[in-house]
């Protein structure tokens, strides 16, 4: 599923009409009817429905929705919230069709407040994706009225007042219960300041050809179908060497469990062989948790690894470093050594990211793939911006960093964004608040290490890792746990059900 900006969506409509020859009225008809069918699944014949129609495509969709509902014997009225001279083009044509089919359009001046107050269902088709700045009257007052009512609110494409793109933090918008997105999700669906306004959401197709999306956007949402297409299947004569030999370096006296969780997650996710490297006391504490791994004891001073020359990096297919490593000067030297000497993909997480802020020239010089897995605080630190600023524009910031330093960025969050060095971005939809707990990131790194060593592109591998990680949490909350008691180690154990679910779903 593709993700678009407002400009990309407008360009897609334009190309569909100008280059392919799809008629604008037909696209509007497709959109309105597709939305109407979704609406019918949420309402009943006894509901009193008020469609609030603005100008442009959003208002035109509203007229088609109203006509379709009217055709199916729903009690529907249209409140036109703009003057007649603002309803032009395809929207005007569909307004006329609606009226000729027996529909009534009530001007804002004569019926607004009472119609809104009396409705059981409000369909918000007032403002589309092109809004810039603060909403003006009468929209501002109507939005306040809608939000104050107890009606069920359905927004068409985007809740009125919500910006489609990044950067929005302060705005006045409809709080929808359900949003039916047209064509493709907009960026604001996935942003912390805007996502909640959408409520529950679905996407409907209006007939735009796939090649148009591929031409104009490099962002998408990674879905179960993508996992099933790309996740390598085990072959009859496979052996452990076919699925990668990985090295995981981490752990210190205060955080031995971080290494343990990454090692377990990597093996549970399908890695053939995993070596855990840490100090002897850490290994003695964790080895019993995962007897299938091998371990390498490294020298340490006061519980922190201090001798990088002991590590042979040449015999591994991928390396992960940083989980529970510590923030000492000696551990920075270890991270630097791995960045400079490893001749395979490396994944940097946790304290490794803290050190990376001083090692950006070295990461930029690598000729083999590099992956970083920051949470927003770590990403903001690497960029030198506030977390608040980062969360306003995570797509942009992740892309700028990935392309500048030629790394894969896995920016963790409710909707984790995976970005390639070429700027291609994939959003992961799985996961729940149960993952907001210590150790979840260590588990993700272990899964990512296993995926990177399988036969798939790195972007696919990282997208699959995020999906599996989140899906494990989702299945566990559905069947065994709550979002409160879920632990990172539970997520490791839940990987079994993820693979079983994927394989059984065809």
TrEMBL record:
<comment type="similarity">
    <text>Belongs to the NnrD/CARKD family.</text>
</comment>
<dbReference type="InterPro" id="IPR029056">
    <property type="entry name" value="Ribokinase-like"/>
</dbReference>
<dbReference type="Pfam" id="PF03853">
    <property type="entry name" value="YjeF_N"/>
</dbReference>
<feature type="binding site">
    <location>
        <position position="157"/>
    </location>
    <ligand>
        <name>(6S)-NADPHX</name>
    </ligand>
</feature>
<feature type="binding site">
    <location>
        <position position="441"/>
    </location>
    <ligand>
        <name>AMP</name>
    </ligand>
</feature>
<feature type="domain" description="YjeF N-terminal">
    <location>
        <begin position="9"/>
        <end position="214"/>
    </location>
</feature>
<keyword id="KW-0630">Potassium</keyword>
<dbReference type="InterPro" id="IPR000631">
    <property type="entry name" value="CARKD"/>
</dbReference>
<comment type="function">
    <text>Catalyzes the epimerization of the S- and R-forms of NAD(P)HX, a damaged form of NAD(P)H that is a result of enzymatic or heat-dependent hydration. This is a prerequisite for the S-specific NAD(P)H-hydrate dehydratase to allow the repair of both epimers of NAD(P)HX.</text>
</comment>
<keyword id="KW-0521">NADP</keyword>
<dbReference type="InterPro" id="IPR036652">
    <property type="entry name" value="YjeF_N_dom_sf"/>
</dbReference>
<keyword id="KW-0067">ATP-binding</keyword>
<keyword id="KW-0520">NAD</keyword>
<keyword id="KW-0413">Isomerase</keyword>
<feature type="binding site">
    <location>
        <position position="258"/>
    </location>
    <ligand>
        <name>(6S)-NADPHX</name>
    </ligand>
</feature>
<feature type="binding site">
    <location>
        <position position="375"/>
    </location>
    <ligand>
        <name>(6S)-NADPHX</name>
    </ligand>
</feature>
<dbReference type="GO" id="GO:0005524">
    <property type="term" value="F:ATP binding"/>
</dbReference>
<dbReference type="GO" id="GO:0046496">
    <property type="term" value="P:nicotinamide nucleotide metabolic process"/>
</dbReference>
<dbReference type="GO" id="GO:0052856">
    <property type="term" value="F:NAD(P)HX epimerase activity"/>
</dbReference>
<keyword id="KW-0547">Nucleotide-binding</keyword>
<feature type="binding site">
    <location>
        <position position="324"/>
    </location>
    <ligand>
        <name>(6S)-NADPHX</name>
    </ligand>
</feature>
<dbReference type="GO" id="GO:0110051">
    <property type="term" value="P:metabolite repair"/>
</dbReference>
<dbReference type="GO" id="GO:0046872">
    <property type="term" value="F:metal ion binding"/>
</dbReference>
<keyword id="KW-0479">Metal-binding</keyword>
<dbReference type="Pfam" id="PF01256">
    <property type="entry name" value="Carb_kinase"/>
</dbReference>
<feature type="binding site">
    <location>
        <position position="160"/>
    </location>
    <ligand>
        <name>K(+)</name>
    </ligand>
</feature>
<comment type="function">
    <text>Bifunctional enzyme that catalyzes the epimerization of the S- and R-forms of NAD(P)HX and the dehydration of the S-form of NAD(P)HX at the expense of ADP, which is converted to AMP. This allows the repair of both epimers of NAD(P)HX, a damaged form of NAD(P)H that is a result of enzymatic or heat-dependent hydration.</text>
</comment>
<feature type="binding site">
    <location>
        <begin position="57"/>
        <end position="61"/>
    </location>
    <ligand>
        <name>(6S)-NADPHX</name>
    </ligand>
</feature>
<feature type="binding site">
    <location>
        <position position="58"/>
    </location>
    <ligand>
        <name>K(+)</name>
    </ligand>
</feature>
<dbReference type="GO" id="GO:0052855">
    <property type="term" value="F:ADP-dependent NAD(P)H-hydrate dehydratase activity"/>
</dbReference>
<feature type="binding site">
    <location>
        <begin position="412"/>
        <end position="416"/>
    </location>
    <ligand>
        <name>AMP</name>
    </ligand>
</feature>
<feature type="binding site">
    <location>
        <begin position="128"/>
        <end position="134"/>
    </location>
    <ligand>
        <name>(6S)-NADPHX</name>
    </ligand>
</feature>
<protein>
    <recommendedName>
        <fullName>Bifunctional NAD(P)H-hydrate repair enzyme</fullName>
        <ecNumber>4.2.1.136</ecNumber>
        <ecNumber>5.1.99.6</ecNumber>
    </recommendedName>
</protein>
<feature type="binding site">
    <location>
        <position position="124"/>
    </location>
    <ligand>
        <name>K(+)</name>
    </ligand>
</feature>
<keyword id="KW-0456">Lyase</keyword>
<comment type="similarity">
    <text>Belongs to the NnrE/AIBP family.</text>
</comment>
<comment type="subunit">
    <text>Homotetramer.</text>
</comment>
<feature type="binding site">
    <location>
        <position position="442"/>
    </location>
    <ligand>
        <name>(6S)-NADPHX</name>
    </ligand>
</feature>
<feature type="domain" description="YjeF C-terminal">
    <location>
        <begin position="223"/>
        <end position="502"/>
    </location>
</feature>
<keyword id="KW-0511">Multifunctional enzyme</keyword>
<dbReference type="InterPro" id="IPR004443">
    <property type="entry name" value="YjeF_N_dom"/>
</dbReference>
<dbReference type="InterPro" id="IPR030677">
    <property type="entry name" value="Nnr"/>
</dbReference>
């Amino acid at each position: 599923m593709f993700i678009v900006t407002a400009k990309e969506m407008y360009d897609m409509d334009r190309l569909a009409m100008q280059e392919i020859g799809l008629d604008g009225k037909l696209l509007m008809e497709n959109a309105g009817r597709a939305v109407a069918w979704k609406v019918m699944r949420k309402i009943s014949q006894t509901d009193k429905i008020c469609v609030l129609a603005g100008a442009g495509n959003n208002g035109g969709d509203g007229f088609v929705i109203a006509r379709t509902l009217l055709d199916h014997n729903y009690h529907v009225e249209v409140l036109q919230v703009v003057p007649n001279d603002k309803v032009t083009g395809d929207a005007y044509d569909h307004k006329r069709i609606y009226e000729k089919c027996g529909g009534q359009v009530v001007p804002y001046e004569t019926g607004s407040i009472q119609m809104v107050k009396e409705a059981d269902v409000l369909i918000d088709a007032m403002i589309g994706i092109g809004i810039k700045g603060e909403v003006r009257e009468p929209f501002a007052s109507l939005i306040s009225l809608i939000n104050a009512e107890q009606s069920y609110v359905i927004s068409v494409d985007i809740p009125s007042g919500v910006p489609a793109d990044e950067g929005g933090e302060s705005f006045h918008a409809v709080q929808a219960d359900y949003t039916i997105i047209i064509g493709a999700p907009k960026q604001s669906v996935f942003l912390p300041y805007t996502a909640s306004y959408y409520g529950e959401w679905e996407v409907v197709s209006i007939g735009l050809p796939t090649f148009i999306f591929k031409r104009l956007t490099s962002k998408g949402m990674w879905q179960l179908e993508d996992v099933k297409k790309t996740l390598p299947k085990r072959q009859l004569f496979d052996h452990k060497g076919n699925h990668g030999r990985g090295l995981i370096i981490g752990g210190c006296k205060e955080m031995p469990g971080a290494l343990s969780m990454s090692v377990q997650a990597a093996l549970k996710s399908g890695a053939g062989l995993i070596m855990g490297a840490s100090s002897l006391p850490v290994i003695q504490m964790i080895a019993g948790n995962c007897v299938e791994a091998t371990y390498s004891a490294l020298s340490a001073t006061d519980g922190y690894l201090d001798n990088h020359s002991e590590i042979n990096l040449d015999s591994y297919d991928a390396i992960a470093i940083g989980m529970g490593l510590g923030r000492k000067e000696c551990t920075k030297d270890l991270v630097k050594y791995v960045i400079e000497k490893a001749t395979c993909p490396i994944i940097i997480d946790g304290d490794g990211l803290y050190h990376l802020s001083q090692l950006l020239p070295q990461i930029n010089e690598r000729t083999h793939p590099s992956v970083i897995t920051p949470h927003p605080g770590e990403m903001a630190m690497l960029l030198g911006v506030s977390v608040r600023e980062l969360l306003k524009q995570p797509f942009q910031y992740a892309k700028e960093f990935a392309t500048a330093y030629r790394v894969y960025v896995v920016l963790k969050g409710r909707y984790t964004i995976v970005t390639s060095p070429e700027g291609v971005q994939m959003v992961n939809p799985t996961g729940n608040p149960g993952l907001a707990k210590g150790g979840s990131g260590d588990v993700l790194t272990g899964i990512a290490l296993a995926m990177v060593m399988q036969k798939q592109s790195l972007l696919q591998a990282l997208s699959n890792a995020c999906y599996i990680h989140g899906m494990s949490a989702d299945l566990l909350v559905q069947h065994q746990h709550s979002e409160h008691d879920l632990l990172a180690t539970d997520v490791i154990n839940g990987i079994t059900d993820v693979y079983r679910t994927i394989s059984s779903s065809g």
